[in-house]
Amino acid sequence: MTRTSLRLLTTVALAALAVGTVPRAGAAESPEAPLNWVALGDSYTAGVIPPTGAELDPEGAHTGCARTEGSYPRLVAGAWGGRVRLTDVACNNAMLAEIAHQGQVPLGSPRDYLEGRTFKAVAPQLAAVDEDTDLVTVGMGGKDSGFGEVVYACAMQEPPRASDGSPVPCEERTRELVEARLASAVREYDDMLRRIHRKAPHAKILTVGYPSIVPADASRCTVGDQTQFGHMSRADLEWLRDGVLDPINRVIERQTARHHRYAAYVDTHHSSRGADVCAGRWRWVEGLTAPGYPYPDNVANVLPNAFGQANTARAVLRAMHREL
Known about the structure:
Elements lengths: L2 H17 L15 E7 L1 H4 L25 H9 L3 E5 L7 H5 L9 H5 L20 E5 L7 H8 L15 H30 L4 E5 L25 H25 L4 E4 L39 H18 L1
Helix pairs in contact: 1-3, 1-9, 3-9, 6-7, 6-8, 7-8
């Protein structure tokens, strides 16, 4: 597919997403060969929760990766109208090493793990990439930063108390873990990009960052609200934002810049500011739970909803328009 054709198609696809008219993938075949695209990633790519639509099981097999119909790879592929051949191997709870060189035992959706379902290991996501791949998108690194552990320790549980009765700050309890995780993520991200490039030397790699999750003014959040961050105080949220989330986005952006010949960073943070977990009905990322869904389908684990996935889809389409 020529660069001119790609730019035209991404312009049309962006227009389709903007007005909410997303055609079904495969609905209209292009006379040119379709773009071979492999989507790698974690839960922010897979979708996982009911606010991103129904779960999609490949060939009827419940893999536990919890990919949903409203995830951004599906939205982008649909907006292309069949002119892209998508291989989506994103998987809930995946880490960088599991993309690159080891398999993963999927966690499943929140309903799955709350009901005790278990799953078989899946292949490393990189196995889906080969020399015929034209585009690789990768949304990964959040779990590697310690984000999940911080949320579990500081949002889902009441804080332990110091000898004077005051709550022990989240930063004090998790700083050592986060610093070690971030240092490891730098190495893992670099290794992952090199491995992708070796397997698909002609492919463009788009690395997708994380959206705005904690507001710039953490006092907008309500302590104890399970549709937000549960037990986390304002200071805890500032640590989560400044010590965990912002740094992993910087790792992704900086490591991508080191491989600028074949990789480009997709920023979703700036376009989602003001639509964080504490933005009420305007939020694009759910909190610990999603209002309007019965238990256990209301368990949201601080993941994007349909609006958040659509914003990432637009950002990816703009990057495709610019980079391909």
